[in-house]
Amino acid sequence: MALRDELLKSIWHAFTSLDLDKSGKVSKSQLKVLSHNLCTVMKIPHDPVALEEHFKDDDEGPVSTQGYMPYLNKFILDKKQPDSPDFNRMCWTLSSRKNLDRSQLLISNDDAFKIWCIFNFLSEDRYPLTVVTEEIEYFLRKLTEAMGGSWVEERFEDYKMQLTSKQQSLTAWALIGLVGSGHFSKGVDRQALSMGINEVYQELIMDVLKQGYILKKGHKRKNWTERWFMLKPNSISYYVGEDLAEKKGDILLDGSCGVEPLQDKEGKKCLFLIKASHKSFEISVSDKKKKHEWILAIQTCVSLLRQGRPAPHREARLKRRELRLKQQAEQEELELRMSELQSANEAKQLELENMRQALEEAATDAAEEERRRLQTQTELQDRYRTDLEREQMVRKQMEEQVAQKSTELEQYLQRVQELEDMYRQLEDALDDEKRARQEEEVVRRLQARLLEEESTKRVELEEVHLRQQRAISETEAEKQELEKERLAKENALQAAMKQLEQLEEERQGALEQYQTVMKKLEDAANNTKTWKHKVAEHEGMLRLIQPGSKGQQLITNWGPAAFSDAELSSRQKKWQETKNQATQAQ
Fold first, then answer.
1. How many angstroms separate the CA atoms of 521 and 516, rounded?
2. Is the pLDDT of residue 509 over 60?
3. CA dist 431 to 427, 478, 547, Å?
4. Which long-range contacts does 163-168 make (Cβ < 8 Å, 24+ apart)?
5. Among 159, 160, 129, 167, which residue's Cα sits nearest to residue 9?
6. At 335, is the secondary structure helix, strand, or coil?
7. Which residues form a coiled coil (predicted)?
8. 8 Å CB contact between 87 and 11
């Protein structure tokens, strides 16, 4: 909780003390007095005009706490950080006059003020301010430990039962009355009770984690002086005495500070060294237990500063509140589930009642239905007997028809099997014909290649012949030399003629292969015609796939040609163009 939130709780007590008729509102004149007192404590000038300006739109009557809080934050608390003890003391003075009954109290007014501050620290963050039983138990345990007594769990459980039957929490004045009446401090004198309240106040409100008399070595004169040390989360203050009347100095703590034990020296025992940012302090305590406690407490403060965590009691309070909020949420969820289950149970009970009525009606209807069934059973038996005889007769007829259909089905299946065998044989014949056509195509390609080579050789021979004629028409002086060349060319021509004869022999071989393939093709065609005739005899159930018709085939001097008339004309045209070009070149 921020410091401002704690101060607002103190102001809330002062505000409610001015609310005499318990209406939740206070007149502006009283608020002016309250604001003036707050400014006096904070030592800032009070501006009454600001209050009038702030509430100029609300002239109908007194102001509620919700309306006063924004003014308080803006015009007073934002100007300066107040001194918490003086601020609380002023609010306590205003509120205690009206609400505190001192006739039954065993404690002083100062102790009541400290319990009031502890109440503000432990109370919930909602108005009106109250403290729950868990925080009451925490405070009473702390107080009992501070007084050196033992905690009696049964006594508090009895009190909690009485408290639960009336209410779930206490106000500040009820808590002061509970502690001041000595209900939980029986057998303890008033001085011990006052010291216990002061110790708890020092820890929870003043953030004093540890305090006591210890010896400190001076920095200038190097003498040892006994001082009252007070450890807080971010500093160590030391005074002349425990009445805190004269403060001698502060040791500021941060994350870089450290503490380490020292060896005994100069007649002093139980020494340890506090290393602050700018100075180091040598400390001596009375025994090893206190030495360990002080070192551990200082190391705890430094560790909290490094981690940026608050004081242990403040962190524990936050955890307790988070746990209460979590338990409250779980309780609300449980209550919601219980209500849902109860609603579901009621719905189920209603559904069961409806089902019971429906079952009774169904039983009545079933009895009536049984009577009608028995009445109609006799009629149905006679009808079933007649239908059974008729069914037997029909069944016999159906068996005869099934037997006849079975015979026809066997014949049909046999016929389908014969057609399938015929179809497979036909497919084999078509495959033979397809392979024959492929072989014919191979032979045609070979014949075309041979003819192309023959045409190439003829062109070469024509070129040789033309060159010979050009050689004869040249001058007589070159005749002998040309004659030699002619002889060489004639030899080349003879070699070419031999190659041509060899090509002719290869063409004759290809022609024989072609005739063989044609023979196979004719056999395959005859075989196909035979299967066509067989298929036609089976009522035309299948239709054969026949090869397409061929065009008119060209017949040459060496037999059937491997190309069409158009291809032949194209080749003759190219050969004639080549011959003309050679003639023009001469």
1. 9
2. yes
3. 6, 68, 12
4. 163/133, 164/133, 168/132, 168/133
5. 129
6. helix
7. 313-520
8. no
Proportion of the chain above pLDDT 90, given as a percent: 6
Q: Does residue 216 contact residue 282 with C-beta atoms inside 8 Å? A: yes
pLDDT tens track for 58-116: 544 444 555 677 767 666 766 666 556 777 888 888 888 888 888 778 888 888 888 88
Q: What is the phi/psi pair of residue 300, to 5°?
A: -65, -45
The Cα diameter of the chain in Å comes to 169
Distance CA 508, CA 502 (A): 10
User: What are the angstrom distances between the C-alpha of 534 and each of 430, 525, 541?
Assistant: 15, 14, 11
* Contacts of the segment 534-540: beta carbons below 8 A, 24+ positions apart: 534/422, 535/422, 535/426, 538/419, 538/422
Q: Which residues contact 545 (CB under 8 A, 6 or more apart)?
A: 430
Helix (H, G, I), strand (E, B) or coil at 211: strand
> What does pTM read for this prediction?
0.54
Q: Give the pLDDT score at 529.
A: 66
Residue 127 DSSP symbol: S
Query: According to DSSP H, which parts of 473-564 are helical?
Result: 479-537
Closest CA relative to residue 133, chosen from 144, 125, 149, 122: 122
Residues in the chain, total: 586
What's the CA angle centered on 227, arms 223 and 229, to 5 degrees?
A: 130
Amino acid at 570: S
Task: Put residue 249 in one of left, alpha, beta given phi > 0 → left and psi -120 to 50 → alpha.
Answer: left
Tell me: pLDDT of 55 over 80.
no
Would the pLDDT of 563 be above 70?
A: no
DSSP 477: G
558 contacts 441 by C-beta, under 8 angstroms: no
Strands 169-170 and 210-217: unpaired
- 320-346 pLDDT, tens digit per residue, is 888 888 888 898 889 899 988 988 888
| Residues 50/70, Cβ–Cβ less than 8 Å | no
Q: Rounded to an integer, what distance in angstroms lies between the CA atom of residue 500 and that of residue 489?
A: 16
CB 44 within 8 A of CB 76: yes
All residues at 6 or more sequence positions from 315 whose CB lies less than 8 Å from its CB, including other chains: 309
- Cβ atoms of 320 and 313 closer than 8 Å: no
For the record, the structure tokens of 55 come out as 């509430």
